[in-house]
Amino acid sequence: MSKKDFELATIGQTKKLHGNPYGKNERSYAIKLAPFGRTLLNLPENPHRKNENSYAIKLDELTAKLQEESLFKKMSEDIKNGNVFMAIRKNCIDFYHKGSKLFGYDKNGFKTNIKFASVYKHENTYIYESEISDCQRITSFAEAYERIKENCSLYAGIEANGVSKIYNKYSYSSSKENIVILDIEVSLKCLKNEKKQDRIDILFFNKNKQRLMFCEVKHFSNKEIWADKGPPKVVEQIERYEEQVNNETIRLSLLEKYHVCIDILNKMFPMRLPYPKEIDRKVILIVFGFDNDQKYGKLKAQFKENLPNSIEFYQIGHLSNLKIGNMFKK
Asked: Which residue among 43, 110, 155, 216 has the highest number of C-beta atoms inside a 10 angstrom radius?
């Protein structure tokens, strides 16, 4: 093994948080040498990285390409301050803003909803109908980034907008708290119907305990949290999610996925997130969007009365008052 091969293998495992000093053309070569570098350096195998040479390498190559994009460079500050949430997926990367998916990024580049990209330029702020033909269409997402963000913010539902207020405050990229949001809209296969996918709203990560914790978010107005008699519909949803996160195959798959995710995030941003070691077996229900009268009235008399003791839930009238530490006191 040449000295350069040794250095590349070493970088692939012990210094990959700092990028590849040999340049982007040799990045994939270093990654492919990484398993050999781990053996040579006598480093322990990561039990949750069985698919490292496919899933992880493809994502690493994708993120390397992403970081060269002018649009990503524009978004970087928004990601770092929590205004845009970047989520690592299996074959792509998604970006969320104000509760809607702002962009997706895959091997073909960036894409967005046509409604968000409907942006035109004109020298005047207000135009007459006769001047419509003088308007110019945008030629890139980067040049219209701020306008696309504005359009994106107009379409989110009340619960998605609520989730965005939480990740704005507690994103892995911006929060200094011990507990941060590592992912949103987490997709899981239904155990009873493999053709269907469930999406859990939020995945929290306790850095000190290295524990992943799932949460579902419901607004006070959501009919699924109410029932005249017996448990409301949301109970079945939470129990279904808990069945999934307690399935050992799914648990191992999730740990593998988020080990890869954290490797990527640590390389892309100035952070040192630890690997998750465990997943909380309970899924917390967050209910928000009510005033004091509703809190001590309908919420207490009807919602709590019909909620089984097995369901863990956290109530918060206004999400601006959310204290992450209070949610996870147990």
From this structure: 216
Evaluate whether residue 108 is within a structural domain.
no
Nearest Cα to Cα of residue 315 among 217, 226, 243? 217
Are residues 179 and 45 located together in one domain of the fold? Answer: no
Please name which of 170, 220, 160 lies closest in space to residue 324, comparing C-alpha atoms: 170
Pair 24, 78 in one domain:
no
Show the domain range for 39: 3-66
Task: Provide the 8-state DSSP code for 171.
Answer: B
d(CA 307, CA 234): 9
**131-135 long-range CB contacts below 8 Å, 24 or more apart?**
none
- CA-based end-to-end distance of the chain: 51
What is the pTM (predicted TM-score) of this model? Answer: 0.81
Contact between 172 and 182 (Cβ < 8 Å):
yes
Q: 193-225, pLDDT tens digit by residue?
A: 766 889 999 999 999 999 999 999 999 999 999
CB 84 within 8 A of CB 91: no
Helix (H) or strand (E) holding 80: helix 70-80
User: Quick one: 55 exposed, middle or buried, by C-beta within 10 A (0-12, 13-18, 19+)?
Assistant: middle
Whether residues 282 and 221 fall in one domain: yes
Residue 284 falls inside a structural domain: yes
Among 221, 150, 180, 140, residue whose Cα is nearest residue 328: 180
Q: At what angle do helices 248-268 and 233-245 cross, to 10 degrees?
A: 80
Q: In which residue ranges of the chain is pLDDT below 50?
A: 1-50
Return the closest-CA partner of residue 183 out of 258, 250, 72. Answer: 258
Residues 283 and 163 in one domain: yes
Which of 23, 46, 66 is a domain's end point? 66
Residue type, 76: S
